[in-house]
Write a structure and sequence with these properties.
Helices cover 34% and strands 16% of the residues. With 206 residues, the protein is an alpha/beta fold. It has two domains: 151 residues, Ribosomal protein L4/L1 (Ribosomal Protein L4, Chain: A); 49 residues, no CATH class. The chain has a six-stranded mixed sheet with strand order 2-1-3-6-4-5, sandwiched between helices. A hairpin with a 5-residue loop joins strand 1 and strand 2. Helix 2 packs across helix 3 and helix 4 crosses helix 5. It starts with a strand and ends with a helix.
């Protein structure tokens, strides 16, 4: 089992913690991690883009001039794609970009992402994270003590003081143990997690 240091909010080491290999020591499956990221981004797409084809734009019912004898190229409609105001060739239509990823694949991708953070020493465990009030400066001070600039802070409960204090920091995101995902773990570089949150993650995913 992997051993990681446990720090307090001042950035001082106050102990160590053993991580469960079933969650934090799996063989990293890069393909599943990639699939999980693609799945999440695809599912977020609205797919509402729309343009009109020549059959949908108004007008153009009459042939603009006779077929022969005018010196112009032959034309059948003023709403053909080559005309100003005409329809779009192969116009985009609303569609659903989402696709399904199996539960086991999702779990394995999440475990792989967490394992990679542990292996890269970008998994920081705090004994606790409690703030007296909503103050961005205090949250910034905690991260500075840990030498972290871009972080995903994982909490075991919805602590509004911590959530609202971190909300205004550009490269910081908070998440509960049941809302963590592969994309955020990879995007925010360093995972800062409380001891209680680690225990809950191990309970759910082990």
């Amino acid at each position: 089992m992997a051993n990681v240091s446990v720090y307090n909010m001042e950035g001082k080491e106050v102990g160590t913690m053993e991580l469960n290999d079933a969650v934090f020591g799996v063989e990293v499956n890069e393909h599943l991690v990639h699939m999980a990221v693609v799945n999440q981004l695809a599912n977020k797409r609205q797919g509402t883009q729309k343009a009109k084809t020549r059959s949908e734009v108004s007008g153009g019912g009459r042939k603009p001039w006779r077929q022969k004898g005018t010196g112009h190229a032959r034309q059948g409609s003023t709403r053909a794609p080559q005309w100003t105001g005409g329809g779009v060739v192969f116009a985009p239509t609303p569609r659903d970009y989402s696709f399904k990823l199996n539960k086991k694949e999702k779990r394995m991708a999440l475990k792989s992402a967490l394992t990679s953070r542990v292996q890269e020493n970008k998994f920081i465990v705090l004994d606790e994270l409690k703030l007296d009030g909503i103050k961005t400066k205090n949250m910034k001070a905690v991260l500075d003590n840990l030498n972290v600039a871009k972080a995903l802070i994982v909490l075991n409960e919805n602590d509004q003081n911590v959530v609202l204090s971190a909300r205004n920091l550009a490269n910081v995101r908070t998440a509960l143990t049941n809302t963590i995902n592969v994309y955020d773990i990879l995007k925010y570089n360093t995972v800062v997690v409380t001891k209680a949150a680690v225990a809950m993650i191990e309970e759910v995913y082990a």
